[in-house]
Write a structure and sequence with these properties.
The structure holds 3 protein chains of 3 kinds. Chain A contains 8 helices and no strands. By secondary structure, chain A is mainly α. Chain A has one domain. Chain A is globular. Chain B has a domain of 35 residues. Helix content of chain B is 88%, strand content 0%. Chain B contains 2 helices and no strands. In chain C, 85% of the residues lie in helices and 0% in strands. The chains are: A mainly alpha, B mainly alpha, C mainly alpha. At the A-C interface, helix 5 and helix 6 of A face helix 9, helix 10 and helix 11 of C.
């Protein structure tokens, strides 16, 4: 069992496995997204206060969830890369970052366009939006550190340290921003006190959340295959691929 | 249909949001494919260099 | 070499080095005063407004000043190879690093604590608030020093320079900023700053306990 899974811990053996999984998760993501959008636009009723604008929630919240969750997964792979000293764990951490950053950005953008009609301004300094902004900076820091260090193995370990330090900080950051936000309750708006959730609204968000999760897996598995080729291109098995 | 697209008057906000998501995903998909292509070129190039090195010895 | 002796050794060495580059350190402090002076010029010198924004500005200036001083920590030793020697020395690296960072804090951050009253007066803060500001800087700057040390060690010899270091450290420093400035605002509002100061104190303790080990790990990584 342990040896069974560890069979795939070498880039060479993981490469074909990931290749088979990408289309599976890709199609899963597409189907879930269609289902989620159907629930979000057809089944879910119009909100009494916010009209149709609340429908942005079906991408805003799942994107924020994925941005947060992906960072934790990156921290997990980073810890694994230290514990078991596996290159592949570090490559997975590297592969997940751009997709996580993308979702953080989309969450911020959609939050702005939701805030404008609802509370009058494009930016609202509520706890979740502000924490997501800082999370985006954390992602950009990971990606910047990766590209600033030449040696891939050294970059692996440096980024792993950064990701782990960051992940310890994320709850602290969130807590401090919450505190700061409740103090300054002048702007008593919060995207967390969204319209009272009809069940269908919640269902729509959950399904879109699952779609985002499947998409992230598909995208990062595809990306890790390219990373494996970039870093292991000189090996025999990679050269065999070209024949 | 038009009525649905207008999203009760909130069309701008709703479609700017969903539109950005669509753009972001499309950009990511293009970036993934470009990275794959570059990686394969790199592998091919490494192979050629190894062949030249072999032939030289 | 025992840990205690290693800490003392690192502390003594880096303080001696700091004494020799007094000008370099003075610039960091001048930078702090300069930044705080710029804000009233960019806004309006309305006393009520200035007193209100003073804690936030003083803290942002302190953040930026602490970033400025960071390259001093490892860069010189890294360049002439003595950092590698330290990593190979029979003394525990976390202890050596702790001595270095402590010296760095004494040389660059402790003066900031003493300069806080100057910033306070510039912005018309009441004496009580100035005291709280100094206290938050005293408790918060160790956290900044350790976050900065980790960042500096991770980016040793990497491209990107000061901007990369800022990108890595500033987001992680947000809680310190929030509680540091928040403490002063809270005390000015009559609500007391105990909770903030306790949190900052807890942060200081955690950073002093864990910082040396993470920084030592980061230093070793930079030698692979």
């Amino acid at each position: 069992m342990a040896s069974g899974l560890f069979r795939f811990s070498s880039p060479a053996s993981f490469f074909p496995l990931a290749g088979r999984l990408v289309p599976v998760f890709g199609w899963l993501a597409a189907l879930l997204a269609l289902a989620g959008l159907y629930i979000g636009f057809v089944v879910a009723p119009t909100d009494f206060q916010q009209g149709e604008s609340y429908r942005i929630i079906f991408i805003h919240v799942p994107a924020a969830w994925m941005a947060m969750f992906t960072y934790l997964v990156i921290a997990g792979w980073s810890a694994a890369s230290f514990i078991w000293n596996t290159r592949l764990s570090a490559m997975m951490a590297q592969a997940l970052a751009p997709t996580g950053a993308m979702f953080a950005f989309v969450s911020l953008w959609s939050g702005a366009f939701w805030g404008r009609p609802t509370w009058g301004t494009y930016w609202v300094w509520d706890a979740r939006l502000t924490s997501t902004l800082i999370l985006l900076f954390l992602y950009l820091g990971l990606m910047a550190l990766r590209s600033a260090i030449e040696d891939p193995r050294r970059a692996d370990r440096a980024c792993a340290v950064l990701a782990l330090v960051g992940s310890v900080n994320v709850p602290i950051i969130y807590f401090s921003v919450q505190w700061w936000n409740t103090l300054h309750q002048g702007a008593s708006v919060s995207l967390t006190t969204a319209p009272k959730m009809a069940e269908t609204m919640l269902a729509g968000m959950l399904v879109m959340g699952l779609a985002a999760w499947a998409y992230t897996i598909a995208a990062s598995l595809h990306r890790v295959r390219s990373i494996i080729l970039e870093r292991e291109g000189h090996t025999r098995w990679a050269q065999e691929l070209m024949r | 249909m038009i009525e649905w697209l207008s999203m009760g008057g909130y069309a701008y906000y709703v479609w700017m949001s969903y539109g950005m998501l669509a753009i972001a995903i499309i950009v990511e998909l293009f970036s993934l494919s470009a990275r794959r292509r570059r990686a394969l070129e790199l592998v091919a190039q490494t192979g050629e260099e190894a062949n030249f090195a072999e032939e030289a010895t | 070499m025992t840990a205690g002796a290693a800490i003392a050794w690192g502390l003594r060495r880096d303080l001696a080095l700091a004494m020799r580059s007094r000008a370099e350190i003075a610039i960091v402090l001048v930078f702090f005063v300069l930044v705080t002076s710029l804000f009233p010029l960019g806004l309006e010198p309305d006393p009520v407004l200035l007193a209100k924004i003073a804690p936030g500005i003083a803290w942002v200036a302190a953040l930026l000043a602490s970033l400025l001083g960071l390259p001093r920590l490892f860069a010189a030793d890294h360049a002439d190879g003595s950092l590698e020697q330290l990593a190979l020395a029979p003394a525990p690296l976390p202890a050596l690093v702790a001595g270095k960072v402590f010296a760095h804090w004494v040389a660059t951050s402790l003066p900031l604590v003493l300069l806080a009253p100057l910033a306070g007066i510039q912005f018309g803060l009441e004496p009580g608030a100035i005291g709280i500001l100094a206290a938050t800087l005293l408790l918060g700057t160790p956290v900044l020093a350790w976050l900065g040390a980790i960042g500096a060690a991770l980016t040793l010899g990497a491209r990107g320079g000061a901007a990369l270091l800022a990108l890595l450290v500033l987001p992680l420093a947000v809680p310190v900023l929030v509680f540091g400035a928040g403490a002063v605002e809270s005390s000015r509002a009559g609500l007391g700053a105990q909770a903030h100061l306790s949190l900052l104190g807890a942060g200081a303790i955690l950073s002093v306990v864990f910082g040396p080990f993470v920084t030592a790990l980061a230093v070793r990584i930079s030698f692979e």
